[in-house]
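Q: Give me the 3D complex with adenosine-5'-triphosphate.
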Amino acid sequence: MTVQACFSGTQGHFVLDAAFEFPVRGVTALFGPSGCGKTTLLRCMAGLNYLPQGRFTIAGEVWQDEQVFLKPYQRSVGYVFQEASLFPHLSVRENLLYGARRCQTNTPYPIDFDELVSLLGILPLLDRSPARLSGGERQRIAIGRALLTQPRILLMDEPLSALDHQSKQDILPYLERLHERLSIPVVYVTHAIEEVARLADHIVLLEQGKVQAAGNITETLSRLDFNIRQDEHAAVVLPATIVEQDKRWHLARAKFVGGSLWVRGHGLQLNQSIRLRVLARDVSIGLHPIDQVSIQNRLPATITELAVSDDPAVMLLRLNVDGSPLLARLTSRSAHELRLEAGQRIWAQIKSVAVLE
Ligand SMILES: Nc1ncnc2c1ncn2[C@@H]1O[C@H](COP(=O)(O)OP(=O)(O)OP(=O)(O)O)[C@@H](O)[C@H]1O
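A: Here is the predicted complex, encoded as structure tokens.
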């Protein structure tokens, strides 16, 4: 069961030619630089833009093809914009209920008002006026209102971009909780890699109206061609589960496909699902396991690919840790002196791991 999107045509001087599909569950990030066509694609999905050469289906239900073009009001879409446009004369509760009244479908997994209020942490805000809310609170209400229409798909256009850094950090945990509960596909437009790493299950990488890569987050984000341009931020994201705690040293062991890593244990529970983000610059390579170093995390791996970055002094390596990818960033001289090559077995030494809860 997938969502299939295929849109091509021109808008002024801009040429869009994008085809991709993604599962009907989970968050799919449309990611790319400013002007690459993310918003245009989202508007095509909502029926707000019409490109005659378009096809859009959700689990086999056709919203656009050669014969069909459902008007925006005929599409069961929840749309969240960069800035929340709440009705100023209605209270938060009334804004939310406005969404519920516009409920269009009999979805198999409807979202309950009270549950949503609790997931978004907005109970204390229900009787307030939108004028008395912070930007982050307003955006949570806008998400709630969109979801209470019980849409078949939720489209979010850079929902955090108008918020300051702290408000972004505050709202992300709510989005993560929501993500676990939602059974509809969410398309999330962003150019912030941190939001992708924390929220997305799938990703579509866009550039100048074309799809550069699309697929599962772990595989796609570990591609060398993508990471070469991320420079210092090149990283992999690994889904993991906490399987052991070392209370004495405040550490926890996070197991992922292919291995496990010790991470800071503060606030983590046994069996908790988390995501690990490992920056390429925190991974070094050894030909043998070395004991007497301070680095605790060492994993046997195979080099699968090497690439020189735009800066010829720096190389990026893609590693395979028994089924999971890892990236390592090192100087070209180190790679040359260690005679590193594809297929070689090595030890990856991981200096630091970020836990994205
Ligand atoms: N209605 C339109 N007519 C003509 N050109 C348009 C129209 N809408 C968008 N464009 C152009 O299409 C290109 C893609 O715009 P779009 O807003 O989809 O990009 P984006 O990736 O969402 O960018 P950003 O991250 O800055 O919001 C831009 O060059 C824009 O100027």
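A quick observation: The two ends are 28 Å apart (CA to CA).
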